[in-house]
Amino acid sequence: MLKDPFPEPRRRTESKSDKIGGDISAGLKVRDPKARIAVLVGLLVMLLLASVFLDSYASSPAAKQTDRDVPSVQIGTDVAAKITGVPALDMSKAERLSDQGPDAKKRFPLDAASYLLYESAYTAMVWANDRNLLPLTPASAAEIRNDSRPWRFRYVTFRGQLVATNEDNFEEAYGTHEQDEIGQVHRGRVLVEGGDQMDPPLYVTFLGDVNGRILSDTDPNVVDAKTEAITEGWVRVRGIFVKNYTDADENGRDIPSMLVVATSVVRDYETKPVESLEDIPFEIIVDNPAIADTQRGRDILSRLFPKPLYRLIAFANERAGEEGRALREKEELTPRAIDDLDEGTYEKVIGQPGAFRGTYFGGLGSIALEGYFLGPSDIETNDAGVSNVFEGWIATDREKLVRFMAPERLMNRRWPENTRIRWAGFYYKSLGYPARNGTRRLAPMVVLTELEEIRPEPRDLGGELWIGIGFLVGLALLFWIVVREDRTKRDFRASRRGKRTVEA
Q: In angstroms, rounded to a whole number, what is the distance separating the alpha carbons of residues 488 and 84?
């Protein structure tokens, strides 16, 4: 049988690599080898760019989400209880009040007073309210004295010297009313701070339920302190304003005053200067972590001990911000790193707080949790004259968590979470706090003198452009080499097929 003079060329056996390439080509819907190579190179470029972008984002402050449950020392578990909301008071009773004229001011508001006393005694949200309080000061009192109607039944706060106090049976002293029986009440009169400079002096007369938080005090600076009655000295009062009122002193003489139903009367202090760290009684602080094995110990570790705390805040305020830079330089305040991993400083500070009390720490980090401002109605009474602070959390660059309080000079802006900062301040104590996962933990607490945002340096667009150009040139060269190699293989295979055809 004659052979076919033009035999069909023998087909090359399909290799595994060809099959994989074909599968990829089929998946990409591209059959031209050049186009297939271009698509694969394009995918490579996309992967490289994505990896560069993700690496850049991961190293940025915005990507650092600090978990407050992780970087500090756990000391137990806890579930925080919150009270929110304040019920509205019956304003119709306020509208029926009158204090225009001498006789109206002397008239005791039986209906309104009994209603407010009942609410303050039996409605927790009323006596617990400490938000949006109107400060009664010589400045605000002038307007209220002129016309009290817009301010009636407003929640107020004031501080001053307790000049008189006694206990009465409400029904016997003031008469019967439509409310349930009130019973025993405290009555007192306070000379408001700065009120002795007014004419007439600014007095406030208050009534409060005997069973409530009225004229009793437990010293927050003493562990296991007993509750004691307040009979004299400075006090801070929180309550509900009723009306302008004419009170009477021990001799029956009229005293222009204001009537308030008190929800809280606690001890306050006359302001004292703080000139050095020796004026701060650090010795009353109890924060040894060894006591964290009991619930009582964990509660003690959570205490702030306001007397030394606010004195330290007043001391730091004189050295805070740009205004205090000269004093800081004069005293040669150089911050140490609290997160030194080689020395284990963070753990040493928590474990041996007494050895580091008043030490000046600082460094770089970011805001771990957006801070918040605390005003006169939020902070505890103190003898340092501190009425405003800023509170928050810092995550150091080595992911260590630090609680801070900042004095008034640093309260010039909001500090959103993940803001890159430089900070410095005085170590105060190891503070227990409830974490978000229900555990209780310990973290060092500092009082800041410096809190400064660090803005990222401007990008070098020229350098980045040249890097990008070089990267593209390299890819183009790689593409040319791959395509050139593919052509060489194709020409070689074609020549081999031609040679075999001739031999056949």
A: 79
Q: At what angle do helices 461-503 and 33-58 cross, to 10 degrees?
A: 150
First to last CA, the chain: 16
* pLDDT tens profile 158-208: 999 999 999 989 999 888 877 678 889 999 999 999 999 888 999 999 999
Q: Tokens for 301?
A: 């570790």
DSSP state of 102: H
d(CA 171, CA 191): 27
Rounded to whole angstroms, how far apart are CA atoms 380 and 271? 14
- The pair of structure tokens assigned to 149 is 């109607």
Question: CA-CA distance, 366 to 396, in Å (whole number)?
Answer: 6
Q: Write the DSSP string, 13-65.
A: PPPHHHHHHHHHHHHHT--SHHHHHHHHHHHHHHHHHHHHHHHHHHTSGGG--
Helical segments of 233-388, H only: 295-301, 306-317, 325-330, 345-351, 353-356
- In angstroms, the Cα distances linking 51 to 38, 464, 475 are 20, 16, 16
CB within 8 Å of 258: residues ≥ 6 apart: 136, 141, 144, 148, 202, 203, 204, 205, 241, 242, 243, 244, 245
Contact call for residues 448 and 421 (beta carbons, < 8 A): no
Strand 439-453 relative to strand 420-434: parallel, antiparallel, unpaired?
antiparallel
Q: Are 167 and 186 in contact (CB under 8 A)?
A: yes
Q: How far apart are CA 358 and CA 306, in angstroms?
A: 15
pTM of structure: 0.67
